Amino acid sequence: MPQLGEGVIDWGKDGIALTAEQKRFYGHNGYVIVRKCVPESEIDRYIERFNYLCTADRSEFPFMSVMRDITLAKTSDGKDVSKITKIQNWQDDPVLFDYCRYPTVVDVVKDLIGTPSSTLCAMHTMLINKPPDTGSLTSRHPLHQDLQYFPFRPADFICCAWTAMQRINRANGCLVVVPGSHKGPLHPHAYPNWEVKNQAYHGIQDYDPSMPRTYVEMEAGDTVFFHPLLIHGSGANRTDGFRRAISCHYANDDLCRYYEEKTKSQEETDKDVMRMLELKTKKLGIDINDIDVDYSFVWRIRSRAVNGEKCNL
Ligand SMILES: O=C(O)CCC(=O)C(=O)O
């Protein structure tokens, strides 16, 4: 029997959205796939909004970050949708935030990290537009654990929802997961030993390649929910089209708290994230070195309750 979320989650009982069997699958494997979780009509709205946000005046969304693939960045005018690989931190965008609040998604997350009355916070929002690989394999995402980036705990009350916005398979770079790896420790991360690499895409250093991997192939609207210690990544996009997915990391606001302790490798990741924030806020005329800002501050200003009112995060 899984021990995750002991005392809060009843793994033997059906939840609001998941059967007991689906919940147990998550407990054993660290992920569960819910097919057709988000309707295509919603996905179409998010795609339309993504296209708008890429070209819009960004001063309306000062904290949203727009990332470009390292090999495409130099060839772009910054607003060319085809060069944008990811938009993050769109928690204040009224259209995209509907994804974080989408009732089926929220119900599944409550089944995995809370109870029907738990307050959930959206901690990190992303829409990933994986570009066709330029030949440098920079469209890959190295194997990593999301907890590496998070200064809040306990890990068992954090969960990511990642929804395919189209058919996603091995050809266009589906997610790859190592089932059961969420039961292990947080491994040391660093930049991978690749010739060219994207900023803040850190990977596990002591990865054991003999661990069996599962390729998560999905159709539009299918959603995979996964634990923040689950080892995962994604392959290169070897097709001519973009591969899109939308995701939100949730934390149970009743049970999670910010946490100061970090490993040496987390200190390096945190520095990278802080450097990115520094560049962003400089453009807004704010020097974060002039104010007393720690790493948890970055997350406090991003987190948004998806139901109820946040008290802790
Ligand atoms: O969508 C992908 O390719 C992987 C995304 C991911 O794992 C991440 O951004 O942490």
TrEMBL record:
<protein>
    <recommendedName>
        <fullName>phytanoyl-CoA dioxygenase</fullName>
        <ecNumber>1.14.11.18</ecNumber>
    </recommendedName>
</protein>
<dbReference type="GO" id="GO:0048244">
    <property type="term" value="F:phytanoyl-CoA dioxygenase activity"/>
</dbReference>
<dbReference type="GO" id="GO:0046872">
    <property type="term" value="F:metal ion binding"/>
</dbReference>
<keyword id="KW-0847">Vitamin C</keyword>
<comment type="similarity">
    <text>Belongs to the PhyH family.</text>
</comment>
<dbReference type="GO" id="GO:0001561">
    <property type="term" value="P:fatty acid alpha-oxidation"/>
</dbReference>
<dbReference type="GO" id="GO:0031418">
    <property type="term" value="F:L-ascorbic acid binding"/>
</dbReference>
<dbReference type="InterPro" id="IPR008775">
    <property type="entry name" value="Phytyl_CoA_dOase-like"/>
</dbReference>
<keyword id="KW-0408">Iron</keyword>
<dbReference type="Pfam" id="PF05721">
    <property type="entry name" value="PhyH"/>
</dbReference>
<keyword id="KW-0560">Oxidoreductase</keyword>
<dbReference type="GO" id="GO:0005777">
    <property type="term" value="C:peroxisome"/>
</dbReference>
<dbReference type="InterPro" id="IPR047128">
    <property type="entry name" value="PhyH"/>
</dbReference>
<comment type="pathway">
    <text>Lipid metabolism; fatty acid metabolism.</text>
</comment>
<keyword id="KW-0479">Metal-binding</keyword>
<keyword id="KW-0223">Dioxygenase</keyword>
